[in-house]
Specification:
- There is one protein chain.
- Helix content is 45%, strand content 12%.
- By secondary structure, it is of the alpha/beta class.
- The strands form 2 sheets. The protein has a 6-stranded mixed β-sheet, with helices on both faces. It has a two-stranded antiparallel ribbon with strand order 7-8.
- Helix 7 crosses helix 9.
- The longest helix has 19 residues.
Length: 282
């Protein structure tokens, strides 16, 4: 007679069974293709409390248990000033999923709440800075963020439509202000639909948005409603009806940029023109 699995065991097993193709395999693909983890790394897996970061924590936990590459992990939760319900939800989900979180407090929401202009931008910058600093104090050389495939392609389209930039979200990057620290995105190749399917399969409930400003509105990128990112999500869904491969096409395009056809580009914050090499190329 087989033993009944605990909820956490069922959730873990589904990652490498039912959702192996859609979650585990693309996760491993990103780790390998982009060389995100090296021997001796100490990685702060940053958990905001949403579905993406919670799944990332489980994927990293599974990898840590079974990888031939020796690395260490810290499951880091920053409290920027959550309300009691959100804080409790994160802690209860971490307990359910058997994720040993390390929580640290900040006053980010209180500070950002005092500014009328671009509070979300200020909040995001402060959150990233606090995460870097705390991870460094814990002896980590990398922080892992839960951005996924759809975040990547939406960022590309948003940059073109609203910022007049053809830019992407790299799978890893060095910190400008914290020498020796890197950001990695282990879920770079994981589609959001697969994350939602996994969440729904196990009746999991995660916080929708970590931001206090969005608790009574719908302008948050994670919460839906009227955000620019949500507009792009809707647009891509419509385009996908006619071209089922449009998301993959956008993703592949940022891996095959033809600089020789671009009239201008930026590198290391310096603008360049095609005229600089026009005669040479001719």
């Amino acid at each position: 007679m087989s033993r009944e699995l605990e909820p956490c065991q069922k959730i873990e097993r589904s990652i490498i069974t039912k959702y192996k193709r859609d979650l585990w395999n693309p996760f491993i693909k990103a780790i390998r293709d982009y060389e995100l983890i090296q021997e001796g790394d100490r990685i702060a897996v940053c958990i905001s409390g949403g579905k993406d970061s919670m799944l990332m924590a489980k994927l990293m936990q599974q990898l840590h248990r079974h990888s031939n590459v020796a690395f260490k992990v810290v499951y880091l939760v920053m409290d920027p000033g959550y309300n009691e319900i959100n804080r409790q939800k994160i802690e209860s989900n971490a307990a359910l999923l058997n994720i040993p979180i390390t929580v640290f407090e900040t006053n980010i929401f209180a500070v950002a709440n005092k500014t009328e202009k671009h509070p979300c931008y200020l909040c995001a910058r402060m959150r990233r800075g606090h995460l870097y600093k705390q991870a460094q104090e814990l002896g980590c050389n990398k922080i892992a963020l839960g951005h996924h495939f759809n975040d990547v392609i939406e960022t590309v389209v948003m940059g073109m439509f609203y910022s007049s930039l053809l830019q992407a979200m790299p799978p890893k990057l060095h910190s400008d202000h914290f020498p020796g620290m890197e950001v990695i995105r282990p879920m770079y190749c994981v589609h959001e639909d697969a994350i939602l399917a996994w969440r729904n399969e196990h009746d999991l409930e995660f916080i929708q948005c970590a931001c206090r400003f969005t608790e009574n509105c719908t302008m948050c990128d994670n919460g839906g409603g009227g955000s620019k990112r949500q507009e792009i999500k809707t647009l891509l869904r419509r385009l996908k009806r006619d071209n089922p491969y449009i998301e993959k096409s956008i993703f592949n395009s940022i891996h095959a940029v033809s600089l020789d056809t671009m009239p201008g580009y930026k590198s290391r914050r310096v603008r360049h023109s095609f005229l600089e090499r026009y005669d040479e190329l001719g």
